[in-house]
Amino acid sequence: MHEGTKPTSQEQELRERVALVTGAARGIGLHIATRLAESGCTVVLTDVDADGAARGAAAIGGAASALPMDVRDRAAIRDTVQRVLGAHGRIDILVNNAGVLAQGPYDQTDGAAWDELVAVNLTGIYNCVQAVVPSMIDRGRGNIVNLASVSAARGGGSVGNVWYGTTKAGVVAITQGLARELGPRGIRVNAIAPAVVDTDMMKPYLTEAVRGAICARIPLRRLAHKRDLGELAAWLVGDRSEFITGQTIAVDGGLLST
Ligand SMILES: NC(=O)c1ccc[n+]([C@@H]2O[C@H](COP(=O)([O-])OP(=O)(O)OC[C@H]3O[C@@H](n4cnc5c(N)ncnc54)[C@H](O)[C@@H]3O)[C@@H](O)[C@H]2O)c1
Fold this sequence. Notes:
By secondary structure, the chain is of the alpha/beta class. It has a single domain (18-257), classed as Rossmann fold, CATH 3.40.50.720. The protein contains seven helices and seven strands, in the order E-H-E-H-E-H-E-H-E-H-E-H-H-E. The chain has a seven-stranded parallel β-sheet, with helices on both faces. Helix 1 packs across helix 7 (226-236) and helix 3 packs parallel to helix 4 (111-139). The structure holds nicotinamide-adenine-dinucleotide (NAD). Nicotinamide-adenine-dinucleotide is lined by residues 22-23, 25-29, 47-49, 52, 70-72, 97-100, 120, 147, 149, 194, 196-197, 199-202.
């Protein structure tokens, strides 16, 4: 799109695009997949929870489909990407959403939990990028959105701990570095950094007291909604944001400004 041309309508703008979303069986990933599909995108929901991904695709309907994919498993990812490329011919959009959380003080995350945080939140993105980007480079276009977190800015925070926040800071760095390297190849890379969203990941920790304390610190006085993230994701992967890359955009009701 050139300066001065009219943007395509929001309803139509992703009609010709194919998106692969990781961790899409529930929560933020499922919502983003649903929102992209509403803009006409063909979405492939992937998750280690194969049944959940299949339920999500059935709920979305239309051209949505599901494939089991553990972002820790390089061979499985290569296989999944080949299947998607075989079925649809391309992957225009990669949403690296799969993630796991650790909570509590630094000494309450054991070695196995740290290994899991790194394997899913960081190596998972590495694996998916390495598998998907070559086909984007071949076509000279592509769009990647990573799920970071406001906890990246302070090494943990409201609920996620220092180790979780550290992996999310890595996601911010991946986003900047890949944007620099892939921009000349026609590929944009951005990240979304939500404050706390009420999903299955957070539910065990969101007592009324904790929820109230978090909302009291947020200038807009509420948690993030999944729709806040879906709207931003749809904008980031569409042409209306065509000059935006390398950015991590906080969706936090002003939390990081306090
Ligand atoms: N909920 C929040 O408050 C919040 C805030 C900031 C960032 N985030 C980030 O947003 C993303 C989504 O979070 P959510 O709240 O929807 O979490 P969630 O736990 O509700 O959903 C995560 C999904 O990822 C899947 N998953 C986990 N490990 C996987 C693996 N190895 N391979 C493939 N899929 C895997 C799960 O099966 C699940 O469907 C995560 O990256 C999370 O860190 C969430």
